[in-house]
């Protein structure tokens, strides 16, 4: 292949990967393996925390275990701030992505090899920090493959999302099989092997990414390196002190992450909006992103309950009998990725076919929230049932609705973040979208305390109604939001 072909700017006219730039294949692969390890581990994490010691678990209270899982999930997306800052000020997106993958692998190894609470603590901290660095930067690098006006952008992000969900499908299935036959630590070990495979694959393709992926958007002056290191060490010591003194405990971890994510989001919006490095058009687009951010929080606070309330529901209420064999609990978390795999291509084709006639980003977001709320209302016919009374087909149907809602909001949100981002805050704008996921995920863990298997109607109906109202609010205000977005749809 000629040098000219390899250096095509932004993948322009390069359609070698299912109509998308070939460089997308490298990012597709590393994200697929990272999600294999992430969802594979998360598929067995909650039950590891609350299963009894005799069953190989840690024997924690279910509400506390759910709060930990929600707080961990929120921390992953909260860590995108750190990952984005390192990318924009120190290393660039591509190198940050590479080093983050190494940290993730180390976290899974810790979960596999270190016993008890120590393994959970060290492992989840490393996975959260590494995943935060990888997520925002992988998305940012995908954005560098397309010029702003390229109509393939949303389709490309949908294809990238397919890679995420291929990993999300196989991860819980294989780790769940190992957990149910050999034990939890073998499942965690498989997650580490998956991340190692992703790291090896990405190492071969990373040099073929566009130069823009390696650019440091806003380099930190060298005379400020020492200050940054001191702040990082001080922050770590303060966090350790809060844990050791009992200010931060397993019981309030989700609340702590909610507060941290809220403060971080407010601060992030304030920093970007008041920066002298953005012009009036960029500032207006950031304001236009705000209602999308709020809608995203509402969406993820329901959607991420797949890993909290729905896991408990699947363990106790779902009939998992398959011809006399009981399906592992974690397999329920592979249902959604199956639908994503099937439907992401359909949605990508629809957006490509419609081109400029497709619904605007605010309308897609609004429909995603409304449909997500409707999915929660679908639990109501099965409320109050006995143990193992909910048919597997019912959960499959409900998760199908989850998937439709997700495809209307999640890949579109990633794409919108890159389109609306000021040039000086490119990766950090993606991190801002992930902050909405962080806040919603932490809320999903905090909500576990209100879930009562003996009185489910208020829980599912109230949360479903709130999401629907938020979606309708955005739908009604779609035109003024579009006006703020200044030509971005």
Automatic annotation (TrEMBL):
As given in the record, the signal peptide range reads none
A GO BP entry = oligopeptide transport
Top-rank taxon of the source lineage equals Bacteria
GO cellular component, alphabetical, reads: plasma membrane
InterPro entries with a match to the protein in the record: Dipep/tripep_permease, MFS_dom, MFS_trans_sf, MFS_Transporters, POT_fam, PTR2_symporter_CS
Q: Where is the Major facilitator superfamily (MFS) profile domain?
A: 1-482
One annotated GO molecular function is: peptide transmembrane transporter activity
Gene3D superfamilies tied to this protein: MFS general substrate transporter like domains
Query: Chief location of this protein?
Result: membrane
Q: How does it sit in the membrane?
A: Multi-pass membrane protein
User: Per the UniProt record, which residue ranges are transmembrane?
Assistant: 36-53, 65-85, 97-118, 124-146, 158-178, 184-204, 225-248, 254-274, 286-303, 331-351, 363-384, 390-409, 430-451, 457-476
Keywords per UniProt: Cell membrane, Membrane, Transmembrane, Transmembrane helix, Transport
Localization annotation = Cell membrane; Membrane
**Matching NCBIfam families:** yjdL_sub1_fam
Q: Which family does it belong to?
A: Belongs to the major facilitator superfamily. Proton-dependent oligopeptide transporter (POT/PTR) (TC 2.A.17) family.
Its recorded name reads: Di-/tripeptide transporter
């Amino acid at each position: 292949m000629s040098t000219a072909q390899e250096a095509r700017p932004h993948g322009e006219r390069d359609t070698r990967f299912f109509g998308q730039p070939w460089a997308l294949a490298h990012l597709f692969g590393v994200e697929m393996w990272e999600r294999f390890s992430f969802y594979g581990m998360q598929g067995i994490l909650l039950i590891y925390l609350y299963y009894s010691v005799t069953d190989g678990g840690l024997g924690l209270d279910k509400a506390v275990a759910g709060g930990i899982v929600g707080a961990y999930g929120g921390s992953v997306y909260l860590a995108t701030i750190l990952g984005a800052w390192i990318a924009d000020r120190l290393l660039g997106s591509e190198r940050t992505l590479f080093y983050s993958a190494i940290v993730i692998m180390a976290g899974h190894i810790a979960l596999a090899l270190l016993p008890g609470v120590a393994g959970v603590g060290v492992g989840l901290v490393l996975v959260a920090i590494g995943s935060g660095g990888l997520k925002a930067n992988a998305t940012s690098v995908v954005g560098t493959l397309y010029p702003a006006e390229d109509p393939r952008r949303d389709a490309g992000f949908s294809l990238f999302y397919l890679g995420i969900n291929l990993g999300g499908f196989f991860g819980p299935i294989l780790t769940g099989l190992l957990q149910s036959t050999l034990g939890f630590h073998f499942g965690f070990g498989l997650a580490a092997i998956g991340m190692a495979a992703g790291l090896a694959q990405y190492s071969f393709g990373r040099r073929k990414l566009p130069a823009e992926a390696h650019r440091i958007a806003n380099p930190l002056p060298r005379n400020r390196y020492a200050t940054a290191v001191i702040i990082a060490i001080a922050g770590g010591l303060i966090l350790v002190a809060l844990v050791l003194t009992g200010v931060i405990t397993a019981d309030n971890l989700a609340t702590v992450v909610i507060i941290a994510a809220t403060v971080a989001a407010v601060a992030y919006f304030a920093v970007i909006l008041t920066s002298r490095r953005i012009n009036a058009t960029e500032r207006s687009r950031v304001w236009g992103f705000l209602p999308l951010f709020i809608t995203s929080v509402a969406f993820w606070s329901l959607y991420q309950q797949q890993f909290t309330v729905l896991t408990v529901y699947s363990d106790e209420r779902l009939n998992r009998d398959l011809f006399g064999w009981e399906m592992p609990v974690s397999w329920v978390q592979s249902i959604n990725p199956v639908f994503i795999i099937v439907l992401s291509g359909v949605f990508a084709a629809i957006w490509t076919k419609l081109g400029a006639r497709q619904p605007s980003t605010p309308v897609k977001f609004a429909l995603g929230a409304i449909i997500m709320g409707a999915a929660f209302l679908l639990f109501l016919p099965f409320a109050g049932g006995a143990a193992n009374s909910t048919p597997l087909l019912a959960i499959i149907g409900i998760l199908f609705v989850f998937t439709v809602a997700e495809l209307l909001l999640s890949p579109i949100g990633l794409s919108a973040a890159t389109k609306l981002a000021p040039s000086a805050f490119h990766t950090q704008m993606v991190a801002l979208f992930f902050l909405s996921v962080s806040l919603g995920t932490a809320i999903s863990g905090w909500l576990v305390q209100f879930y009562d298997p003996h009185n489910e109607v208020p829980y599912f109906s109230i949360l479903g109604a709130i999401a629907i109202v938020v979606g309708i609010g955005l739908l009604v205000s779609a035109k003024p939001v579009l006006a703020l977005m200044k030509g971005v749809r």
